[in-house]
């Protein structure tokens, strides 16, 4: 493809992109596609000869787009958001065009130096303490992996890396029963064994109970285990549970345990001064992560991972074959040793463009709007006699259920809510996610898509009520 042809195609792509952004509301939010439907449009074998881009683009529109779930739809209320925004998309175009692999300072000095700077901007914007140093990871899961590995190595004086786990006592990790499954997955990945992840019970607000945490740690120490890490949640996935950082941090300090804070979704809310109460005790954290690729208008993937002791992280992951040595080593940051993959995309560019384009105040306005909309929705739900809120609203996340005529708790009510959710998502006007709260079926309504306004939430709530009504007819 010549540069001239590229220019022509790129212009038509950009036209499509702008039209998509403008008209995304016309699509069903969740793909209304049956399993295998998209695969059936794709030839079994690759083409031997190159095809015209016009034709490929037509197939994209005809076969691919109908199989897409529209995360950028303003009535997307499922999971947590995975936002994009026009400045972020523009940055991604430049990143793709540069195609730089930014593993060393030398392999793209601008990428490294911008990453350091925008992560410090984020630290300032969110009110995090000055002693934290940031790095962009591919995911919160990746950051938890790095944190657990650092905790493991710190606790074993870097001997697990050298000799393996067979020479070590049982190493244990602690987290609440609300924590995202990424912690359990990573405990398996780093070879500790799922049984050595201790699931700590929560209080009536779904926050980890520090008294139970400490009792479990002491019991484990008495049994000869070595507690290495507590993973605290700020905004856990189910009901958005927020753990008490100060109490947990004090326990970690008493027992010399590494503290990682998983704030994948909720961390963005710290740009609002009124939401920083949940940071009380953050000075105890050795590591924390939040995802601008969730709520901060920045395309996936972009996880902001902050660490207190970058040397410990680098010492844990460092490996230096001949081909990765560089003249500047020691004078600059080489991010290759800050994450598991060696290769790195230029991810800082989109964050730089988003922050510059919206400004901190523009981002605050959007996140604050989402939280206010959720508070309004909470009011609407609680005044409907056939619905009930089943967990305290956390920021912009609400868990509710349909309970007509105060039906008794139990399997039948669970099934009714499961059917309601299925009908809602099959309808396509909105998209929600199922949950279990204290063992009973619930429906999550998560607000946070970049363009979600009051009318989208109001329409969404009307859809829920309408489909619930029809369910009973
Ligand atoms: N932690 C929490 C609280 C989450 O909600 C999620 C995903 O939704 C994750 C971790 C995992 O995030 P990622 O997809 O970036 O690994």
What report would you give on this structure?
The protein has 473 residues and is an alpha/beta fold. It is built from 14 helices and eleven strands. The strands form two sheets. A seven-stranded mixed β-sheet has the order 1-7-6-5-4-2-3, with helices on both faces. It has a four-stranded antiparallel β-sheet with strand order 8-9-11-10, covered by helices on one side. The model has no long low-confidence stretch (mean pLDDT 96). It binds pyridoxal-5'-phosphate (PLP).
The description of the largest β-sheet is: 7 strands, mixed
| Small molecules in complex | pyridoxal-5'-phosphate
Report the β-strand fraction as a percent range: 5-15%
Strand segment tally = 11
Helix/strand class: alpha/beta
Listing every helix as H and every strand as E from the N terminus to the C terminus, the arrangement reads HHHHEHHEHEHEHEEHEHHEEHEEH
In short:
The protein has 473 residues and is α/β, with parallel strands linked by helices. Helix content is 42%, strand content 13%.
List keywords for this structure.
four-stranded antiparallel sheet; 11 strands; 473 residues; alpha/beta; single chain; seven-stranded mixed sheet; binds pyridoxal-5'-phosphate
């Amino acid at each position: 493809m010549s540069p001239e042809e590229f220019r022509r195609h790129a212009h038509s792509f950009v036209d499509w992109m702008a039209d998509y952004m403008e008209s995304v509301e016309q699509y069903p939010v969740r793909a209304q596609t049956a399993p295998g439907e998209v695969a059936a449009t794709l030839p079994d074998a690759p083409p031997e000869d190159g095809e015209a881009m016009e034709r490929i683009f037509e197939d994209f529109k005809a076969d691919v787009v109908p199989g897409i779930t529209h995360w950028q739809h303003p009535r997307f209320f499922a999971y947590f958001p995975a936002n994009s925004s026009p400045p972020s998309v523009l940055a991604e175009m430049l990143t793709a065009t540069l195609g730089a692999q930014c593993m060393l300072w030398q392999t793209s000095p601008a990428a490294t130096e911008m990453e350091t700077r925008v992560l410090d901007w984020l630290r300032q914007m969110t009110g995090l303490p000055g002693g934290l140093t940031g790095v962009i990871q591919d995911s919160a899961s990746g950051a938890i992996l790095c944190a657990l590995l650092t905790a493991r190595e710190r606790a074993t004086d870097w001997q697990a890396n050298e000799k393996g786990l067979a020479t070590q006592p049982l190493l244990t990790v602690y987290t609440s029963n609300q924590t995202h499954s990424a912690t359990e997955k990573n405990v398996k990945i780093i070879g500790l064994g799922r049984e050595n992840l201790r699931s700590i019970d929560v209080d009536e607000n779904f926050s980890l109970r520090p008294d139970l945490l400490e009792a479990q740690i002491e019991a484990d120490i008495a049994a000869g285990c070595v507690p290495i890490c507590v993973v605290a949640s700020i905004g856990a996935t189910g009901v958005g549970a927020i753990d008490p950082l100060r109490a947990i941090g004090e326990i970690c300090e008493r027992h010399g345990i590494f503290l990682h804070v998983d704030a994948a979704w909720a961390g963005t809310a710290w740009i609002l001064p009124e939401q920083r109460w949940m940071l009380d005790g953050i000075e105890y954290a050795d590591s924390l992560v939040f995802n601008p690729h969730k709520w901060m208008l920045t395309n996936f993937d972009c996880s902001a991972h902050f660490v207190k002791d970058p040397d410990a992280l680098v010492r844990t992951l460092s490996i230096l074959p001949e081909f990765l040595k560089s003249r500047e080593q020691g004078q600059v940051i080489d991010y290759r040793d800050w994450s598991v993959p060696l290769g790195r995309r230029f991810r800082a560019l989109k964050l730089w463009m988003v922050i510059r384009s919206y400004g901190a105040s523009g981002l605050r306005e959007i996140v604050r709007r989402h939280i206010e909309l959720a508070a309004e929705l909470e009011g609407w739900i609680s005044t409907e006699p056939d619905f009930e809120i089943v967990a305290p609203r956390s920021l912009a996340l609400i868990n509710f259920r349909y309970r007509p005529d105060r039906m008794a708790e139990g399997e039948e009510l669970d099934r009714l809510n499961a059917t309601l959710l299925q009908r809602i998502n099959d309808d396509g006007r909105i998209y929600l996610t199922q949950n279990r709260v204290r063992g009973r079926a619930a429906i999550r309504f998560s607000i946070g898509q970049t363009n979600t306004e009051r009318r989208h939430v109001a329409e969404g709530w009307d859809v829920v009520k309408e489909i619930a009504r029809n369910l009973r007819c």
